[in-house]
Amino acid sequence: MSNNEMIIIGRISGLFGVRGWVKVFSHTSPREGILDYKTWYLRKAEDWQAYTLAAGQKQGKNVVAHLGSCNDRDQAAELVGIDIAIRREQLPKLKPGEYYWTDLEGLRVENVQGVDFGVVSHLLETGANDVLVVKGDRERLIPYTMGEAVQEVDLPSGRMVVDWDPDF
After folding, report:
1. How far is CA 168 from CA 99, 136, 142, 163, in A?
2. How far apart are CA 36 and CA 160, in angstroms?
3. How far apart are alpha carbons 37 and 87 in whole angstroms?
4. By CB neighbour count within 10 A (0-12 exposed, 13-18 middle, 19+ buried), where does 31 fall?
5. CATH of 3-89, one of 2.40.30.60, 3.40.50.2000, 2.50.20.10, 3.30.43.10
6. Strand pairing partners for 84?
């Protein structure tokens, strides 16, 4: 299974109790959305291994989970620090014009005048709208507003066109 088929959605961040439960740092929104995926892939020794999610819940601001084959604290301790991924085909289908953040990261960004700004490093959730963090000659923060700041997203060619002043 190649790495580009896998989407990292979280990380095992700690232990929870003595019966094999783990704390999970989730990249999904909402955080507990990670529990919607019943098969998780954990990378061990450069290979992805499938684990069945036996149970999970929101625990305060955290998410905790129990993987079916992990029955005690020692087994769970071996998983701490490991990324959690899913296969790309496990993601829900999007409507035309909608994109997953992971698909936007790495796109080359240029403005409508053809000025190269660099590549999308990552996105930030700000409440009002998401923000593209574009790294090139310098770091730029560009609102991810389709039809306004973002004019075009072309995944096959790996580029995005924005209506943004190069001096900002």
Report:
1. 25, 13, 9, 11
2. 31
3. 10
4. middle
5. 2.40.30.60
6. 10, 42
End-to-end CA distance of the chain, in Å? 41
- 157: exposed, middle or buried (Cβ count in 10 Å: 0-12, 13-18, 19+): exposed
Using one digit for the tens of pLDDT, what is the confidence trace for 61-100? Answer: 889 999 998 989 999 999 999 999 999 999 889 898 889 8
Q: How far apart are CA 168 and CA 165, in angstroms?
A: 6
pLDDT, tens digit (0-9, with 9 covering 90-100), for 19-28: 999 999 999 8
Q: Which fold has domain 101-162?
A: SH3 type barrels. (2.30.30)
For the record, the structure tokens of 128 come out as 């009002």
